[in-house]
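Support reply, case 0932

Customer input (verbatim):
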Amino acid sequence: MEARGFIFGASVAARLGLPFLPIRKPGKLPCDTIGVDYALEYGADRLEMDPASVSRDQKVAIVDDLLATGGTACATVELLRQAGADVADAFFVIDLPDLGGAKRLHEAGISVAALMQFDGD
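Our regenerated output:
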């Protein structure tokens, strides 16, 4: 997903010999896009992608650096599914479980894994 997720997503894709699909903020892609608006703790945002970059029922996994509330990750799942992708897995470097992101993703039918987690106080 946008920004830091590119570092990890592109690396994982390259290592596995799989394509990398960037999910971007509005106006960053040089093609026609589809998008989804989503709520943040402090406002709203939008994510976009090239709908031609996935085929119907193509298996796609989400890779990002941090899972907090799950807002961006859930919006990404919604966007990919809107494009026809089959999304069932999400991988993160860090999970902050007290913020509920993994629970939100599980409710959307997504399996979640993280390299490490930091519980709150």
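We compared this against your earlier run and they match. Two observations from our side: The first helix runs from residue 4 to 16. The chain has a mean pLDDT of 94. Please reopen the case if you see a mismatch on your end.
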